[in-house]
Each structure stands twice: as structure tokens, then as C-alpha cells.
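Q: Hi! First time doing this. I have a protein sequence and I read that you can turn it into a structure. Is that right? Here it is:
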Amino acid sequence: MQEFRSEDLLKCIHCGLCLQACPTYVEAGSEADSPRGRIYLMRAVAEGRIQWQAGAVEHIDACLGCLACETACPSGVKYGWLIEIARAQVERSPARSGVRRLARKWLLDIMTQPRAFALALKAGRVFAPLFGGGSLPVPFARLLGAGMVVAKLPQVRSGTSHTRLAGVYPPVGERRDRVGLLTGCVASVLFHEVNAATVAVLQRNGFEVVVPPEQGCCGALHLHNGFPEEARRRALRLIECFERAGVDAVIVNSAGCGSTMKEYGRLFACTPHDERARAFSAKVKDIMEFLAEVGIAPPEHPLTGRDGRSELVVTYHDACHLAHAQGIRRQPREIIRSIPGVRLVELDEADMCCGSAGIYNLLQPEMASRLLRRKVERVRATGAEIVLTGNPGCLAWIAQGLNDLPEPVAIMHPVELLHRAYHGESDTLYHPR
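A: Yes, that's right. Below is the predicted 3D structure, encoded as C-alpha cells:
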């Protein structure tokens, strides 16, 4: 079992600067549901003063893992590492029953196998009337520990199915480089259009795109939820896959996947795969990060608003694992502002978590719903026609909240908007209704 290092725990000086950055503290106002409160619990376990038990575990489970506290921390506390260790310990402790542990692992395994996940969602739609219109069955929700609020299944875009991209896609014009694309697990099922747009945009900018058909899960969901051994197994398979592909960069359009892949060196530290993992991580680039670095061809098609005449007003939600984990904030905004006809209106609390957080909205639906309402209220205040964000979990979760707005607001990945500006395809707009 992975253990805490005292020097990591003692870095927290309990100054409280993380409090207003932490979504669960802002919403609940509970010290135990703040980063420093959770670190205090970790210290108590590490020092043998308490063991993992229900009262302490509920506060670890309630953490979003959004890493906003790391951005706010003046002491450089690696909270993300600490919460991963805590969750791995919890999953192996008597505080988590064997049945509940298996149920959580089963959910993660299903979501990270695209064909199985697509089949599960289809079954969910068929039986939706029995489960409250798209909710998890109540007994299974309870088994996962979802509390009194029944967790909602993710919505699927109209017309989206599990369509696999695979093979080598040639560049348009002179070849600049050869890159690989991670298509992802959830993304390949719920947001095939994002992957297709990513390939098209890279091609348009002179890149040969390799999409290995045998690629699998990156391990992010398992790592963030207390199953590091399974995460390492999946990560190693992915490393080997892209090594065989012989690419100069590995492009990712999912914030959660990208942040984990950039930390494979830490995941494989002190193992025989240490150097390979670090070499792989050095090649990983978020799609917006990569495009901002290499420079893009100017889009040919100015975009317009809903009336076809005025400018298109958009806003941008910072996915947590893009802004806080990877420090990528400026690059997506630069790309968005470069699109002719588009006006970017900044979103209040743009980098506060929307409540999706991997499978958090399934395990902690009450808090996730509170954070979703908070996010949607701020989106509505911008007057934007489209909200842009760089993570499939955020796309799926925020889309559910947008359904409640009286005026339709679309949601998409920034690369989809850029693709539309290159190709003039107005039908790429997705309205969640």
C-alpha cells in the first residue's frame, strides 16, 4: 500500500488560502471538506492517531480532485498526489466494503471500455423510464454510495455512437510533423465529433495524424479513484502503443487524460519503466496547447451569431485538469480569439469545477448538482450562445444543466469551433435539447 511522506503532508501550513478556491468548502462551509481539513485527516492516519473509517472517508470521497487548491497554495503542496494516496488506502481499508469496492471498480472498468460503455448507455436509454428518466437504478446508486440523490447517467449527443477513428490521416499541404491522437474512452463514445474535428484541424495545419486502433485507456479514472495498479497496467499498454506508432507528439483533447499522461513519470517512479514513461510524457500535448505552440493557419470562414448577421458570442469554462493540473489557460483563449467573427466573454468563476470530475457526479450527485447549477447560472449571465470547454466530462455534465435554460446555449470543445471556422459547417453546433 502506498504511504504518505511526512514532508509532503507537512508542507501544508494551514494558512487557509485554499478555502475559497475549494468548491466543496465554498458550497458546504465545512472545514473537513476543505483541502487543509482533508490533509489534517491524512496526517492523523499517517501518524496512527486514527484509521480510515466512515466518518473520515466521507470527506475524502467528497473531494472533487479539481486541484484548485494547488493553484491557490503558496507552499507548493501537491494535494493531487496526496488525495490519490488517500483514496488508494481507503479502497484497501475495512472502511470500504468489498462489495462496494467491486461495484466502483466495475463502473470504472465499464466506462473505460468504449464498446461496453456504449452498450451500457444504449441499455440505459431503453430502460430509462424505469430509472427516473436516465438515472442509475436506485439499488446500484446506493451500492456505489451515491447517497439520497440518484445519480444521472451522461447524455449522449444526438446521432453520436461508438465510431472508432483509426489509421493514418494525411496532412493537407506540406507535411510539418507526424503526431498521434488519443481518442479516449468516454470521448470516443460520447464525443466522436470532437475527435473527428481534432483530426481535421491537425490535417488542415499540415500534420500527419496517426490514430492507433489498439490504443486503450490512459488510466486516469482508475488512478483518481483509488486503483493505481490498474492505472499503471493501462498506462503501460498505452505507452507501448504510441511507441510503436513512431510519433513526434501525442495529442490529447481530454483534460483529465492529458494531465495524467503528463505525470506517467511519477506513476512509474522507481520501476523498470521510469525512463520510458518520462520520455512518453514529454511528448504529450493538449490540442489547444499544441496549436498555440506551433501556430495555426488563419481560419477562412468568419462565424456569426444565431441571427446570421451579428458576431458569435462565446464563453469559456476552464476544465480543472487543464487549468489547475496542466496550467493551460492562455492558449485556448488565444485560439478562440483568433477565429474571425467570434467574441469571447469571460466567465465568472471560469476555473471553478462544474461538478463532473470524472465519476464524481455519479458518486456524489447532490454536491455535483449544486456545482452544476452554480456553473450554469454564470454561463447564462454571459449572454453567450456557446460555452466552450476542453474535457468530455465537463461537456456532458454542463450540457445537462443547459437543458434547464429558457434560451438555448450550445456547448462544444474549442477545437470543434475552430474546425467549423475552417470548413464553414454550421451544423457542428450542438444544442443539448
